[in-house]
Protein backbone atom coordinates (compact mmCIF):
# COMPACT_ATOMS: atom_id res chain seq x y z
CA UNK A 1 0.00 0.00 0.00
CA UNK A 2 1.11 3.51 -0.70
CA UNK A 3 0.18 5.82 2.13
CA UNK A 4 -0.02 8.77 -0.22
CA UNK A 5 -2.45 7.06 -2.54
CA UNK A 6 -6.21 7.38 -2.82
CA UNK A 7 -8.22 4.68 -1.12
CA UNK A 8 -9.83 2.89 -3.89
CA UNK A 9 -10.15 -0.71 -4.76
CA UNK A 10 -13.82 -0.07 -4.39
CA UNK A 11 -15.33 -2.39 -6.90
CA UNK A 12 -18.42 -1.64 -5.18
CA UNK A 13 -20.16 0.71 -3.33
CA UNK A 14 -19.43 1.25 -2.09
CA UNK A 15 -19.17 0.67 -2.32
CA UNK A 16 -15.89 1.39 1.31
CA UNK A 17 -14.91 4.31 3.36
CA UNK A 18 -12.39 6.91 3.06
CA UNK A 19 -11.73 6.87 -0.61
CA UNK A 20 -9.74 10.07 -0.78
CA UNK A 21 -7.39 10.80 -3.63
CA UNK A 22 -5.27 12.53 -1.03
CA UNK A 23 -4.72 9.19 0.78
CA UNK A 24 -4.90 6.73 -2.08
CA UNK A 25 -4.35 3.36 -0.47
CA UNK A 26 -5.90 0.09 -1.51
CA UNK A 27 -8.96 -1.24 0.18
CA UNK A 28 -10.12 -4.59 -1.31
CA UNK A 29 -13.84 -3.79 -1.32
CA UNK A 30 -16.18 -3.40 -4.21
CA UNK A 31 -18.40 -0.75 -5.73
CA UNK A 32 -20.63 -0.50 -8.80
CA UNK A 33 -21.18 1.64 -11.87
CA UNK A 34 -23.04 1.55 -15.12
CA UNK A 35 -22.73 2.75 -18.66
CA UNK A 36 -22.78 5.84 -20.86
CA UNK A 37 -24.02 6.33 -24.45
CA UNK A 38 -23.51 9.87 -25.63
CA UNK A 39 -20.07 11.04 -26.65
CA UNK A 40 -20.86 14.62 -27.57
CA UNK A 41 -23.42 16.79 -25.79
CA UNK A 42 -26.47 14.66 -25.16
CA UNK A 43 -30.20 15.06 -24.56
CA UNK A 44 -31.36 13.67 -21.24
CA UNK A 45 -34.93 13.46 -22.53
CA UNK A 46 -36.52 15.31 -19.62
CA UNK A 47 -34.82 18.68 -19.79
CA UNK A 48 -31.60 20.30 -20.91
CA UNK A 49 -29.53 22.55 -18.68
CA UNK A 50 -30.76 26.12 -18.71
CA UNK A 51 -28.78 29.10 -19.91
CA UNK A 52 -27.97 30.15 -16.33
CA UNK A 53 -26.22 26.84 -15.73
CA UNK A 54 -28.98 25.31 -13.61
CA UNK A 55 -30.70 22.12 -14.69
CA UNK A 56 -34.30 21.14 -15.33
CA UNK A 57 -33.51 17.95 -13.44
CA UNK A 58 -35.51 17.68 -10.23
CA UNK A 59 -35.52 15.01 -7.53
CA UNK A 60 -37.89 13.91 -4.79
CA UNK A 61 -36.39 12.43 -1.61
CA UNK A 62 -37.80 9.04 -0.57
CA UNK A 63 -36.58 7.75 2.79
CA UNK A 64 -35.48 4.11 2.99
CA UNK A 65 -34.88 4.30 6.72
CA UNK A 66 -37.77 1.89 7.33
CA UNK A 67 -36.27 -0.79 5.07
CA UNK A 68 -34.68 -2.62 8.02
CA UNK A 69 -36.77 -5.77 8.63
CA UNK A 70 -37.50 -7.08 12.16
CA UNK A 71 -34.74 -9.16 13.74
CA UNK A 72 -31.85 -7.35 12.02
CA UNK A 73 -29.52 -4.72 13.47
CA UNK A 74 -28.62 -2.69 10.38
CA UNK A 75 -28.44 -2.88 6.60
CA UNK A 76 -26.18 -1.88 3.75
CA UNK A 77 -27.92 -0.50 0.62
CA UNK A 78 -26.06 -1.76 -2.44
CA UNK A 79 -27.78 -1.62 -5.82
CA UNK A 80 -30.71 0.09 -7.56
CA UNK A 81 -32.50 -1.36 -10.59
CA UNK A 82 -34.65 0.33 -13.23
CA UNK A 83 -37.89 -0.63 -11.45
CA UNK A 84 -36.58 0.94 -8.22
CA UNK A 85 -35.88 -2.31 -6.43
CA UNK A 86 -33.14 -1.67 -3.88
CA UNK A 87 -30.90 -4.64 -3.09
CA UNK A 88 -29.49 -4.80 0.43
CA UNK A 89 -27.39 -6.78 2.84
CA UNK A 90 -29.19 -7.01 6.18
CA UNK A 91 -27.22 -7.95 9.31
CA UNK A 92 -28.30 -9.87 12.40
CA UNK A 93 -25.65 -9.52 15.10
CA UNK A 94 -24.88 -11.46 18.26
CA UNK A 95 -21.42 -12.95 18.82
CA UNK A 96 -20.93 -12.65 15.06
CA UNK A 97 -22.79 -10.55 12.54
CA UNK A 98 -24.61 -12.79 10.08
CA UNK A 99 -25.57 -11.26 6.70
CA UNK A 100 -28.51 -11.98 4.43
CA UNK A 101 -29.34 -10.93 0.88
CA UNK A 102 -32.54 -8.87 0.70
CA UNK A 103 -34.58 -6.68 -1.64
CA UNK A 104 -36.70 -3.60 -0.82
CA UNK A 105 -39.63 -2.57 -3.01
CA UNK A 106 -42.75 -0.50 -2.35
CA UNK A 107 -42.16 -0.25 1.37
CA UNK A 108 -41.46 -3.95 1.95
CA UNK A 109 -38.14 -5.75 2.51
CA UNK A 110 -37.96 -9.43 1.53
CA UNK A 111 -35.06 -11.51 2.86
CA UNK A 112 -33.94 -13.88 0.11
CA UNK A 113 -31.11 -16.03 1.48
CA UNK A 114 -28.17 -15.89 3.90
CA UNK A 115 -25.26 -14.19 2.17
CA UNK A 116 -23.77 -10.85 1.17
CA UNK A 117 -25.06 -8.60 -1.63
CA UNK A 118 -22.47 -6.91 -3.87
CA UNK A 119 -24.36 -6.29 -7.12
CA UNK A 120 -27.67 -6.82 -8.90
CA UNK A 121 -28.92 -6.62 -12.47
CA UNK A 122 -32.24 -5.48 -13.93
CA UNK A 123 -33.33 -9.09 -14.43
CA UNK A 124 -33.36 -9.75 -10.69
CA UNK A 125 -30.10 -11.70 -10.40
CA UNK A 126 -28.03 -10.72 -7.38
CA UNK A 127 -24.27 -11.14 -7.29
CA UNK A 128 -22.59 -11.71 -3.98
CA UNK A 129 -21.39 -14.49 -1.73
CA UNK A 130 -22.36 -17.13 0.78
CA UNK A 131 -20.40 -17.38 4.03
CA UNK A 132 -18.51 -20.65 4.41
CA UNK A 133 -16.74 -19.75 7.68
CA UNK A 134 -18.59 -17.24 9.85
CA UNK A 135 -15.82 -16.99 12.47
CA UNK A 136 -13.26 -15.86 9.88
CA UNK A 137 -15.84 -14.48 7.45
CA UNK A 138 -14.70 -16.55 4.48
CA UNK A 139 -16.89 -16.03 1.41
CA UNK A 140 -17.65 -18.02 -1.73
CA UNK A 141 -19.01 -16.30 -4.83
CA UNK A 142 -22.69 -16.95 -5.46
CA UNK A 143 -25.65 -15.84 -7.58
CA UNK A 144 -29.08 -15.34 -6.02
CA UNK A 145 -32.50 -15.06 -7.67
CA UNK A 146 -35.64 -14.73 -5.57
CA UNK A 147 -37.61 -17.99 -5.61
CA UNK A 148 -34.78 -20.07 -7.12
CA UNK A 149 -31.94 -22.14 -5.66
CA UNK A 150 -28.68 -20.32 -4.98
CA UNK A 151 -25.95 -20.92 -7.55
CA UNK A 152 -22.67 -21.23 -5.64
CA UNK A 153 -19.72 -20.72 -7.99
CA UNK A 154 -17.01 -23.38 -7.58
CA UNK A 155 -13.74 -22.17 -6.11
CA UNK A 156 -10.66 -21.73 -8.26
CA UNK A 157 -7.49 -23.62 -7.39
CA UNK A 158 -5.69 -21.78 -4.58
CA UNK A 159 -8.68 -19.58 -3.78
CA UNK A 160 -9.32 -18.61 -0.18
CA UNK A 161 -12.32 -16.30 -0.51
CA UNK A 162 -14.37 -14.87 -3.38
CA UNK A 163 -17.44 -12.84 -4.26
CA UNK A 164 -19.34 -11.66 -7.33
CA UNK A 165 -18.40 -7.99 -7.69
CA UNK A 166 -20.59 -7.17 -10.72
CA UNK A 167 -23.41 -8.78 -12.67
CA UNK A 168 -24.40 -7.53 -16.12
CA UNK A 169 -27.93 -7.51 -17.52
CA UNK A 170 -26.72 -10.14 -19.99
CA UNK A 171 -25.96 -12.47 -17.06
CA UNK A 172 -22.16 -12.20 -16.98
CA UNK A 173 -20.75 -12.26 -13.45
CA UNK A 174 -17.46 -10.55 -12.63
CA UNK A 175 -15.88 -12.49 -9.77
CA UNK A 176 -13.08 -11.35 -7.48
CA UNK A 177 -11.07 -14.30 -6.18
CA UNK A 178 -8.52 -13.82 -3.37
CA UNK A 179 -5.75 -16.19 -2.36
CA UNK A 180 -4.66 -16.92 1.21
CA UNK A 181 -1.99 -14.22 0.75
CA UNK A 182 -4.65 -11.65 -0.32
CA UNK A 183 -3.66 -11.63 -3.99
CA UNK A 184 -6.76 -10.73 -5.99
CA UNK A 185 -7.58 -12.03 -9.45
CA UNK A 186 -10.71 -11.56 -11.54
CA UNK A 187 -12.66 -13.75 -13.90
CA UNK A 188 -15.96 -13.77 -15.78
CA UNK A 189 -18.52 -16.47 -15.10
CA UNK A 190 -21.63 -17.45 -17.05
CA UNK A 191 -23.48 -20.78 -17.26
CA UNK A 192 -20.58 -22.61 -15.61
CA UNK A 193 -17.91 -21.19 -17.93
CA UNK A 194 -14.96 -19.36 -16.37
CA UNK A 195 -13.03 -16.75 -18.40
CA UNK A 196 -9.90 -15.58 -16.55
CA UNK A 197 -8.97 -11.89 -16.84
CA UNK A 198 -5.26 -11.37 -17.34
CA UNK A 199 -4.97 -7.84 -15.96
CA UNK A 200 -1.27 -8.10 -15.11
CA UNK A 201 0.57 -8.30 -11.82
CA UNK A 202 -0.33 -4.90 -10.38
CA UNK A 203 -3.52 -4.52 -8.29
CA UNK A 204 -6.70 -3.49 -10.10
CA UNK A 205 -9.63 -1.52 -8.70
CA UNK A 206 -13.01 -0.10 -9.67
CA UNK A 207 -13.37 -3.07 -12.02
CA UNK A 208 -16.65 -2.93 -13.94
CA UNK A 209 -18.09 -4.64 -17.01
CA UNK A 210 -20.71 -4.16 -19.68
CA UNK A 211 -23.18 -6.54 -21.30
CA UNK A 212 -20.59 -7.66 -23.88
CA UNK A 213 -18.12 -8.66 -21.19
CA UNK A 214 -15.75 -5.75 -21.77
CA UNK A 215 -14.05 -4.74 -18.53
CA UNK A 216 -12.70 -1.40 -17.32
CA UNK A 217 -11.18 0.02 -14.17
CA UNK A 218 -7.94 1.23 -12.70
CA UNK A 219 -4.52 -0.45 -12.50
CA UNK A 220 -2.10 0.65 -9.78
CA UNK A 221 1.19 1.38 -11.47
CA UNK A 222 4.37 2.11 -9.45
CA UNK A 223 4.73 5.72 -8.38
CA UNK A 224 2.04 8.31 -9.17
CA UNK A 225 1.25 6.53 -12.44
CA UNK A 226 -2.12 4.81 -12.00
CA UNK A 227 -3.88 4.12 -15.28
CA UNK A 228 -7.43 3.61 -16.40
CA UNK A 229 -7.83 0.55 -18.58
CA UNK A 230 -10.19 -1.26 -20.91
CA UNK A 231 -9.88 -5.02 -21.33
CA UNK A 232 -11.43 -7.28 -23.96
CA UNK A 233 -11.36 -10.92 -22.76
CA UNK A 234 -11.61 -12.12 -26.36
CA UNK A 235 -8.20 -10.67 -27.23
CA UNK A 236 -6.71 -10.76 -23.74
CA UNK A 237 -5.18 -7.32 -24.29
CA UNK A 238 -5.14 -4.64 -21.58
CA UNK A 239 -5.48 -1.22 -23.22
CA UNK A 240 -4.19 1.50 -20.90
CA UNK A 241 -6.14 4.76 -21.11
CA UNK A 242 -3.73 7.60 -20.55
CA UNK A 243 -4.47 10.89 -18.82
CA UNK A 244 -4.13 14.16 -20.67
CA UNK A 245 -0.54 15.47 -20.82
CA UNK A 246 -1.38 18.01 -18.10
CA UNK A 247 -2.06 15.30 -15.47
CA UNK A 248 0.05 12.31 -14.36
CA UNK A 249 -2.66 9.74 -13.56
CA UNK A 250 -5.95 8.32 -14.77
CA UNK A 251 -8.69 6.17 -13.24
CA UNK A 252 -11.48 4.27 -14.95
CA UNK A 253 -14.81 4.22 -13.10
CA UNK A 254 -17.38 2.61 -15.41
CA UNK A 255 -17.90 1.24 -18.90
CA UNK A 256 -21.03 1.62 -21.03
CA UNK A 257 -22.63 -0.63 -23.65
CA UNK A 258 -20.50 0.71 -26.51
CA UNK A 259 -17.25 0.37 -24.55
CA UNK A 260 -16.71 4.04 -23.62
CA UNK A 261 -15.01 4.41 -20.24
CA UNK A 262 -15.90 7.09 -17.68
CA UNK A 263 -13.12 8.28 -15.40
CA UNK A 264 -10.63 10.83 -14.18
CA UNK A 265 -7.49 12.43 -15.61
CA UNK A 266 -6.01 13.98 -12.49
CA UNK A 267 -3.22 15.07 -10.18
CA UNK A 268 -3.61 13.84 -6.59
CA UNK A 269 -5.32 16.41 -4.39
CA UNK A 270 -5.36 18.98 -7.17
CA UNK A 271 -6.88 19.40 -10.63
CA UNK A 272 -9.00 16.53 -11.89
CA UNK A 273 -10.81 16.23 -15.20
CA UNK A 274 -13.95 14.13 -15.34
CA UNK A 275 -14.52 12.70 -18.76
CA UNK A 276 -14.88 9.76 -21.12
CA UNK A 277 -12.45 7.73 -23.19
CA UNK A 278 -13.84 6.70 -26.55
CA UNK A 279 -11.29 4.23 -27.82
CA UNK A 280 -8.17 5.94 -26.37
CA UNK A 281 -9.24 9.58 -26.77
CA UNK A 282 -10.31 11.41 -23.60
CA UNK A 283 -13.09 14.01 -23.78
CA UNK A 284 -13.46 16.29 -20.74
CA UNK A 285 -16.94 16.84 -19.29
CA UNK A 286 -16.09 18.81 -16.17
CA UNK A 287 -12.96 20.12 -14.41
CA UNK A 288 -12.75 20.34 -10.63
CA UNK A 289 -9.99 20.90 -8.12
CA UNK A 290 -9.71 24.51 -9.33
CA UNK A 291 -10.22 27.80 -7.44
CA UNK A 292 -13.66 28.13 -9.04
CA UNK A 293 -14.62 24.49 -8.33
CA UNK A 294 -12.35 23.28 -5.50
CA UNK A 295 -14.11 19.92 -5.07
CA UNK A 296 -11.95 16.81 -5.06
CA UNK A 297 -14.16 13.77 -5.62
CA UNK A 298 -13.43 10.07 -5.33
CA UNK A 299 -16.16 8.29 -7.26
CA UNK A 300 -18.23 8.71 -10.39
CA UNK A 301 -21.51 6.95 -11.19
CA UNK A 302 -23.02 6.64 -14.66
CA UNK A 303 -26.18 5.45 -16.30
CA UNK A 304 -26.68 4.26 -19.84
CA UNK A 305 -28.38 7.47 -21.06
CA UNK A 306 -25.28 9.36 -19.96
CA UNK A 307 -26.00 11.12 -16.66
CA UNK A 308 -22.87 11.42 -14.51
CA UNK A 309 -22.93 11.59 -10.71
CA UNK A 310 -19.96 13.06 -8.81
CA UNK A 311 -19.80 11.83 -5.22
CA UNK A 312 -17.62 10.84 -2.26
CA UNK A 313 -16.12 14.26 -2.09
CA UNK A 314 -13.25 15.19 0.19
CA UNK A 315 -13.62 17.73 2.98
CA UNK A 316 -14.67 20.47 3.20
CA UNK A 317 -17.17 19.62 0.44
CA UNK A 318 -20.05 17.49 1.79
CA UNK A 319 -22.09 17.46 -1.42
CA UNK A 320 -22.79 15.20 -4.39
CA UNK A 321 -23.40 16.54 -7.91
CA UNK A 322 -24.76 15.61 -11.33
CA UNK A 323 -23.27 16.54 -14.71
CA UNK A 324 -26.21 16.71 -17.16
CA UNK A 325 -24.07 18.01 -20.04
CA UNK A 326 -20.45 19.01 -20.63
CA UNK A 327 -19.23 21.94 -18.53
CA UNK A 328 -22.36 21.96 -16.32
CA UNK A 329 -22.27 20.63 -12.77
CA UNK A 330 -25.38 20.85 -10.54
CA UNK A 331 -25.43 20.31 -6.77
CA UNK A 332 -28.00 17.65 -5.91
CA UNK A 333 -29.02 19.57 -2.78
CA UNK A 334 -30.16 22.43 -5.05
CA UNK A 335 -32.53 20.28 -7.09
CA UNK A 336 -33.90 17.95 -4.38
CA UNK A 337 -36.75 18.79 -2.01
CA UNK A 338 -34.74 17.66 1.03
CA UNK A 339 -31.35 16.05 1.57
CA UNK A 340 -28.93 15.34 4.42
CA UNK A 341 -26.05 17.78 4.84
CA UNK A 342 -23.49 15.12 3.88
CA UNK A 343 -24.24 12.60 1.13
CA UNK A 344 -22.59 9.70 -0.65
CA UNK A 345 -24.35 8.27 -3.68
CA UNK A 346 -24.20 4.53 -4.28
CA UNK A 347 -25.94 3.72 -7.56
CA UNK A 348 -27.98 5.26 -10.39
CA UNK A 349 -30.48 3.57 -12.68
CA UNK A 350 -31.27 4.33 -16.30
CA UNK A 351 -34.18 6.61 -15.34
CA UNK A 352 -31.78 8.81 -13.38
CA UNK A 353 -33.06 7.73 -9.94
CA UNK A 354 -30.22 7.65 -7.40
CA UNK A 355 -29.57 5.49 -4.32
CA UNK A 356 -27.64 7.17 -1.53
CA UNK A 357 -26.94 7.64 2.13
CA UNK A 358 -26.05 10.60 4.27
CA UNK A 359 -26.07 12.33 7.59
CA UNK A 360 -25.63 15.53 9.55
CA UNK A 361 -21.83 15.48 9.31
CA UNK A 362 -19.06 13.89 7.26
CA UNK A 363 -19.26 10.06 7.28
CA UNK A 364 -22.00 10.13 9.89
CA UNK A 365 -24.42 7.63 8.32
CA UNK A 366 -27.90 8.46 9.58
CA UNK A 367 -30.17 8.09 6.55
CA UNK A 368 -30.59 5.89 3.50
CA UNK A 369 -32.65 7.24 0.62
CA UNK A 370 -33.81 7.02 -2.96
CA UNK A 371 -33.81 10.18 -5.05
CA UNK A 372 -36.69 9.83 -7.51
CA UNK A 373 -36.34 11.86 -10.66
CA UNK A 374 -39.41 14.00 -11.36
CA UNK A 375 -40.46 15.94 -14.43
CA UNK A 376 -40.36 19.65 -15.04
CA UNK A 377 -40.64 22.81 -13.02
CA UNK A 378 -43.78 21.64 -11.21
CA UNK A 379 -41.57 19.44 -9.06
CA UNK A 380 -38.98 22.11 -8.30
CA UNK A 381 -38.49 23.02 -4.65
CA UNK A 382 -40.45 26.21 -3.92
CA UNK A 383 -37.93 27.17 -1.23
CA UNK A 384 -34.36 26.27 -0.53
CA UNK A 385 -34.00 22.53 0.14
CA UNK A 386 -34.08 21.61 3.81
CA UNK A 387 -31.39 19.45 5.36
CA UNK A 388 -32.56 16.39 7.26
CA UNK A 389 -31.81 16.02 10.93
CA UNK A 390 -30.92 12.75 12.59
CA UNK A 391 -34.50 12.14 13.70
CA UNK A 392 -34.48 8.49 12.71
CA UNK A 393 -31.23 6.57 12.66
CA UNK A 394 -31.36 3.10 11.14
CA UNK A 395 -27.66 2.31 11.08
CA UNK A 396 -25.84 2.45 14.42
CA UNK A 397 -22.49 4.13 14.80
CA UNK A 398 -20.27 1.73 12.89
CA UNK A 399 -17.35 2.32 15.27
CA UNK A 400 -19.14 0.04 17.73
CA UNK A 401 -20.10 -2.79 15.40
CA UNK A 402 -18.11 -6.04 15.07
CA UNK A 403 -14.95 -6.07 13.00
CA UNK A 404 -15.62 -9.10 10.81
CA UNK A 405 -17.98 -7.43 8.37
CA UNK A 406 -16.34 -7.17 4.93
CA UNK A 407 -19.40 -5.67 3.27
CA UNK A 408 -19.07 -2.78 0.82
CA UNK A 409 -19.97 -0.29 3.56
CA UNK A 410 -18.32 -1.99 6.51
CA UNK A 411 -15.16 0.09 6.68
CA UNK A 412 -17.24 2.76 8.40
CA UNK A 413 -17.15 0.30 11.32
CA UNK A 414 -13.43 0.75 11.66
CA UNK A 415 -13.01 4.48 11.95
Provide structural commentary.
With 415 residues, this protein is mainly beta. Helices cover 0% and strands 45% of the residues. The chain contains no helices and 30 strands. The chain has strands at 58-63, 74-80, 86-93, 97-105, 108-114, 116-120, 125-133, 138-145, 151-152, 159-167, 173-179, 184-190, 193-197, 204-209, 215-219, 227-232, 237-241, 249-255, 261-266, 272-278, 281-288, 297-302, 308-313, 321-325, 328-331, 338-339, 342-348, 354-359, 367-374, 386-387. The strands form eight sheets. It has a four-stranded antiparallel β-sheet, with no helix packed on it. The chain has a four-stranded antiparallel β-sheet with strand order 2-3-4-5, with no helix packed on it. Strands 6-7-8-9 form a four-stranded antiparallel β-sheet, with no helix packed on it. The chain is globular, with a radius of gyration of 20 Å. The model is unreliable at 1-20, 22-54, 378-385 and 389-415 (pLDDT under 50).
Question: In terms of structural class, how would the helical and strand content be classed?
Answer: mainly beta
| Share of residues in helices | under 10%
Query: What is the terminal separation in angstroms?
Result: 18 Å
Q: How is the largest sheet built, in terms of strand order?
A: 1-29-28-27
Portion in strands? 35-45%
Summarize the biggest pleated sheet.
Answer: 4 strands, antiparallel
* SSE order, one letter for each helix or strand: EEEEEEEEEEEEEEEEEEEEEEEEEEEEEE
Number of helices: 0
Number of strands: 30
Low-confidence stretches: 1-20, 22-54, 378-385, 389-415
What Rg do the Cα atoms give?
A: 20 Å
Give the overall shape, derived from the CA principal axes. Answer: globular
> Kindly state the mean pLDDT as a whole number?
82
For this structure, the quaternary state is single chain
Amino acid sequence: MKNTRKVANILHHPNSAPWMKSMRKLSGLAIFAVGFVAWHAFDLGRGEARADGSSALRYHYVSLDEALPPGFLFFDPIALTNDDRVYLTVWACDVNCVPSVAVYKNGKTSVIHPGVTYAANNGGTIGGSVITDIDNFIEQAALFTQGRPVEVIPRLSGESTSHVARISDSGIALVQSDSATSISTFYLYKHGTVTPLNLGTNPAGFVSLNNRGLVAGRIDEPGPNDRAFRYDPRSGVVNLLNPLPSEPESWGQAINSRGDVLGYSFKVGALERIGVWRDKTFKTYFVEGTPAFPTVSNQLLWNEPGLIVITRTSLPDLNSYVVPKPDVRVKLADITDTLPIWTAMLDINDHGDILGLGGSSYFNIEHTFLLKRVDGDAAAPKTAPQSLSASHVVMPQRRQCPQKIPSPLSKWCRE
